[in-house]
Structure formats: C-alpha cells, structure tokens
Please model this.
Amino acid sequence: MIPAWHYDGQTATRYEVYVVAQDDGLRLDLGEGRSDVAPWGDLFWIDKRDGASVFGRKGADGWRVGIPLPMTDLLVRRLPPQSRYGGLVDKFGIWPAVAGFTALSAAVVLVLWKAPDVVAPLVPMSWEQKMGDAMVGDLGGRICDGAEGQKALDALVRRIDPDAANLRVRIVNVDMVNAAALPGGQILIFRGLLQEAKNPDELAGVLGHEIGHVRNRDVMQALLRQMGLSLLLGGVGGDVGGALNSAISASYSRAAESRADDYAINLMRTANVSPLPTAGFFDRLAADERKLGKGAVAMSYMSSHPLSDERRKVFLASARKGAAYAPAVTPQQWRAIVDACANDPDVKEGDLF
Amino acid sequence: MGVGNQDQTAFEFRGDWKEFFPIAASNLLLTLVTLGIYRFWATTRERRYFWSQTRFIDDTLEWTGTGKELFLGFLMAIVALILPVIGLQFLIQALILQGQTALAGALGLGFYVVLLFLAGFATFRALRYRLSRTHWHGIRGGSEDPGFRYGLSYIWKTLVGGLALGLLIPWSMTSLWADRWNQMSFGPHRFESAPEWGGLMKRFLLLYLVPVAAVILGVVAAVSSGGDPGGLGAMVGLLVLAFYVVLPLLALGYYAAFFREVVDTLSLTTINFQFTARTKEWFLLFLGNAGLFILALIAALIPISALGLFSGFTDLQPGQDPFAQNPGLIAGMVLALIIPMSLVGPFIRYRNWRFFIRNLEATGVIDLDLLTQSQTKVGSHGEGLFDALDMGAM
Model:
C-alpha cells in the first residue's frame, strides 16, 4: 500500500489514494471500499512532478496517477520506463540514434545529389519542353524576334548544328553579358553578349557550349538537383522568376562544363568554324572580370561559366594548323544578329525580375 | 478553491535555464542529424518542459501533445494546402511572363483572399490545438468550432481594418481576438472575451501619426534650411530617429496596451484573467531577446573568422571555387554558424513563455467538482498549417 495522488479525468478533483501492484495491473484504492485496476499495458509515463512519477492511462483522457519517488522495485519493474526524446530515440539510446540518423541522412543527401544524373535522361523531352515554355514564355515581350535577326541567328545555329530542329535559340533584350540553356532546348542569348562579341565565330563557340548542355540533359539535371535541395531545406518554392533566374545563373559541375566545351569544339570542327575566336573571347571576358571584380559580374557569363585558363587552352588546342576555316555566317547576317534588338520595333526593354 | 491573492499569484513559472539547456542542445543535435525532421519532437519536448514548469494554483500544467501529431499536421498542410498554393503561384508568375497580366492580376487577388482565409483558419486551429493538449488536474480545453467561420471573418475584418487607411486596425485586432476566444473552452466552461477597442485608439493614433509628422517636420526642416547640408542632415537624422527608434517604441506601447486589454477582459466562468506587463517590460523582453541574438552572433563569428583565415580565402583568383578545395572547412564554418544561431530560438521561446506566465494573473473561485472533462473532439494532428505559414511568433 503506497500513498499516491490521482485524477480520474472526469472532474478536476484530486484524490488521495493507495496503489498496489497486482498481477493484472495497478490497483488504486479510492477509499470507502471502492477501487480501480489499470492494466499494466495501458499505463504510460508522463513526467516527474513534485517528487512523484506521473502516469497516464490509454483510453482515459486526463486519468493520472502520481506515485512518490523513490518507487519500490516491484513498481519500477512493472511500470513503463521514463521516455525522454521520443519513441524511436529512447529505444536505441541517444548516441546510437544520432549515429543511425546521420548515416540515413547522408544516404538521403547522396541519393538526392546523384539521382538527377540517372533521372534526367528519363524525363520525356515533351515534358521538358512544357516546363521550358512555362518558365520562359515570351519573357514579357523582351524577345528580339524581328524577322531578319531571328533568321540570321537560325542560320548560325543550323550552320554549327545541322540537327538543330528541336532547339529554340532566341535573343533577349536584356543588357547582360550571358547566355543560358533552359529546359526544353531553349537557349537564350542576352543582348549584352552580342555587344561584347567581336565576330560570329565567338558567338558560335558560346552557342555550341549551350547546345552541349541541352544535348547532355544538363539542364534537367540541374533543375532536378535544385528541386531536391530545396525539398531538403524545406523551402519548396513555386517561384518561376526565381527558377528562371537560377537556371540562368546555374553553374554546372566542372565535368559538365568541360563536356559542354568538348561538344562545342566537336560541332565547330564538323562545321569548319575556327575555335580560336572563342578562346580570344574568353580571354577578354577574363580580363574584364579581373578589372571589374567578382561582384560586378554577378549574373553574367563569367559567374555562370567560370573562366579558367584550361577552358581557353582547350579551345586553342583544338585549332588545326593551316585549316581553311570559314566564317560562321556572312557579315550581313552577323550585323542582323547584333542589331536584332535595335531592329525589332515592338520589343520591350528591361532587366529580368 | 480561491484563485490569486496577495500572498500567492495564481500563475508561477519555476523553470531554470540550466535545466532547459540539455533539452535545447539535444533537440538541436537530433534536428541536425535528421535533416530537420526531429523538429516536431523538439517542439513537443520544449513545450512539455515549459508547461510542466508552470504552476496554476496548486498543480502544474501538462502538455500532452506529441511530435507525431505535429509531424502529421505538417504533412497534411503540405499536401492539402501548400502544394496547391505553390501551384497557383507558379501559374500566376507564368501568366505574367507570358503577358497575360489581367488574368494574372485577378488570380493574384483571389490568391490573396485565399491566403487571408488560411491565415485566420490556421491561427484558430493552432489555439484550439494548444488548448486541447493542455491539461490541468486531468482536465483539458478545446473547441467545438472547426474554425471555418473564423477564417471568413478574418478575411473581411482584416480587409475592413486595413481599408479605412488602417485606422480600424485596433477594432479588427480586438474583435478577432474575441471571435477566437469566445469559441474556446476549458473543461465544460466557455471562455468569455469582450475587449473594447476605444481605449486603444489614443496609442494607436500616436503610432499612426508619428510617421506623418516626421515626414512633414523633415520637409519643413529641409525647406527652411534652404537646402544647406546641415539642414538636410537634420532632416535625415529626424527621419531615422522617427522610423527606427520612436516608431518601434510606439508600436510596442500600442501592443502592450492591446495585450492588457484583451487578457483583462477574458474570463472562464468565475475566473478573471489579468496581464500586468506594461510597455517597459515588453521593451526589456525584446532588448533581452536581441541581446541573446547578438551573443550568438559573436559566438559564431569567432570560430568562423579563425577558420576563414586558416583556409586562405584571402588570395582568391577569379574563376576559382574555394568551396571545391575545402569542403571540410566549409562544413565547419556552416556548423559554427548554425549551432549558436539555432540555440537562440529555444531560449527566446523560453524567455517569452516566462514573460507571459510571470505577467499573467487570475482571480476568482474554482469549483473543482464542477470542472468536468471537456467533451470537445481531440484532433489527430497538430498545428501544421500554422507552422507552415510561419505564424508561431508571439
């Protein structure tokens, strides 16, 4: 007979009772000959309060019994143990649980990081095209789609990639030195890049690189990876502007970048376009970056396509000595491309978002 | 049983931060290694501690919520509400990009109204959840009302409060508080709330007029000085002072009065509640919380700057990626930042709860035999939506 206190969950009245450990459960002597037996399996630990361990009873809202500490060995054996961190952690102990969770989390991160490489090539191109259309649309009228400019640009694309039917290369009226591959074979060339480029061969190199990203399904991979990461960080965002922005400024892995460079070099070799101007273009951009500083080139080609000396050398080395290269497009076509935005009467100007 | 007299206050918080620290620290560790999923169980452990250290008359409160139900609530909020909302947002932005501005605008307006509804609904459900998981003497609270009606009145009262140039905000705040609490109960008894907003208008008008006055005074100062640098400087100084010092203090003063009014007019049958904190106490609370934050920042910056120096980030070349070379150091820097900054949250919640309980009073008489168990339903899930909309702040 151990003195204890008790709430029956029916009223707020506090009862002074005696508890007895029986085979079938904990018996509460309520006085005046009345008693109540709570089966051992129905009792659960709640907390320690004012020198007593408090237990509740399954299926009886508010039913409580507080047994003063220390409890007899018999009661300690029969009553449920104290819980601290939550079921699973209590079962294994905190340090084994921490180790287990760490391993599991590492595995999840690894899967989320690696899965896009496997999943991206499996995403149907038609889905990717729909995604790209939803993201880009007509960029709020900022596409320079005057007939002459677009025609000349299409000619350039066909010249370096005869298989260009599923590509959509367009010029955007935004003063930003950059080019980007987006889902669904969409490639955006920003006006600033055209002003920076000195001749069509330079543009051909940059374009070939973006085509490489499209063909290697790098865009989808980056998109899936970003979705996975934002899922992990809990910030599931439905922000298209943000998605477009990050697709433009996405930097791919070094391996993906150099595969895209290889792709570009191959295209140019087949098309008989010189890779040397592209190397020179990288040189000038790198010099700009040194002059302006890293901060000034955010959102630009230099930030999304880190310019290393190796990249330039790869283009340089791919030039064949004594080869009779032909310009990517005629001077008239090049003018039409460079002036595409100026010649498009209904194009809107402005920054992106 | 009598409640609240000269000798003993009805509510008392007897927690100790040294006792709370192991809870906060182990919560942080488990949350980190589970990529954040443990946070629901962490919240539950925190609340169990706060509630169990809070005495009302002769016994402590008891938090009976579980981590599992908070987790379920979160999952339900994601599936049923957050995903559709994200989809709608995606659609609106896509429409804007494609030049369909009118349609996007209409959708956007509808989206805003839906969001208002959800905000109100979530506030109501969170209060209901918290009361239904709060036990005292084995008796809990709750509400029969599912909260849809409250969501609707939240829409129109917020809109009306804001539309009249914001002048009716005290009305919408007090009226919504009453709408909420009048639907809540503890045991068999309903809460009764009847706050008046008239008394709050003086402080609210002060808060309302200071920015206007500051701009007028600033312009007058600038014009009368004839544009000389001294006058312009005075104008800028005045504006900065008004917006960063005077305005927050007045807002705090208004909120202190609001909170006293709504708690002082709240009762549960024969018990009346009071809240004693004045502007000064609220100010000290926020000052202390800000101090905690700064302390954590300092604790984070010392190891970070040491690591930064060692890793040689100073001679970066363009096009080089420092993160690729030093993944271990980066992880160390991130941890050095995350650990102290994540401990700020639990301790701010600790201080807020202590502040709330220390300033809460109750007077009257309770008949324990008449305080019978609540017949309201106990939901199977927690305050997921409230959590998701990030409205847990006090």
Remarks:
- The CA atoms of residues 138 and 189 of chain B lie 15 Å apart.
